[in-house]
């Protein structure tokens, strides 16, 4: 679509240029101003020659000289050929002008002798201006077209790299989460806990979500809330009475969308480091929408010392990178540790994803 608009814009600019260009000989070429320009044979010959020559030069310069010479950094050869084209144009213009009956009659009438060669007859303002305009516009239009094409390729490459990186990050999220969940169910089965079967059903719902919906760039927030609720129910089954889990959710509109699996790494992190079998702990998760902002909070107790499992921090690093790629500057993430509490506060601008 952008390429089509650029082509239309270039075509319009080219038409405007040629419309103006065709009028310029009437300003710069010699003819009797009291008569029609087309009554002057000299003007007609100079006009036809100049237009044909400069149109040919325009397209040779933009279609062959710039791509074949300037584009390959053959600057000296390029400018030598431009200078040659310039001198050839002035030479033919001078020959037509000097050998016309109107010019010969003029010098005989004004000076009583034939015209002699003078440098200022050769380097006349009119043909110089027309040649420079044809050279400048053909060069600028061609260089602009090449620049727009290069920008388009650059944008496509950047977009492709972004999609590749996001796919890679998503592929890291799923096995990371499933690995931790399977560990939880394994603990239930080893201990013979009758809640293991219910846990398997919860895991089935979670896996369906990760397989079917998490491949989308954005999903309805309500789907993400249901996913988090299943995850927390799974953790309740696994946890002892010493762990209090609080999940507060405001009413979520159907139009609100969010990147899938964006919030779960923070909750996983809370269960990794904020749960103890020997002391009472609390994990509080909150999701609410305020105007155009989604506010997510996750607070857990800080235990004196925890042996971090292998891979700790991967989920948080991934979610930070996904936030940078998907939301750019339209989010605020604050992670603080105060009063023996580990707090995550995330605000997302949901306008662009609504």
Protein architecture, described:
This protein has 354 residues and is of the alpha+beta class. It has helices at 2-21, 25-28, 41-70, 75-98, 101-111, 119-122, 125-190, 196-212, 221-238, 264-273, 314-327, and strands spanning 219-220, 243-249, 257-258, 281-290, 293-301, 331-338, 341-349. Strands 2-4-5-7-6 form a five-stranded mixed beta sheet, covered by helices on one side. The chain has a two-stranded antiparallel ribbon with strand order 1-3.
Task: Write the topology of this structure.
Layout: H1 2-21, H2 25-28, H3 41-70, H4 75-98, H5 101-111, H6 119-122, H7 125-190, H8 196-212, E1 219-220, H9 221-238, E2 243-249, E3 257-258, H10 264-273, E4 281-290, E5 293-301, H11 314-327, E6 331-338, E7 341-349
Parallel strand pairs: 2-4
Antiparallel strand pairs: 1-3, 4-5, 5-7, 6-7
Helix pairs in contact: 1-7, 3-4, 3-7, 4-7, 7-8, 7-9, 7-11, 8-9
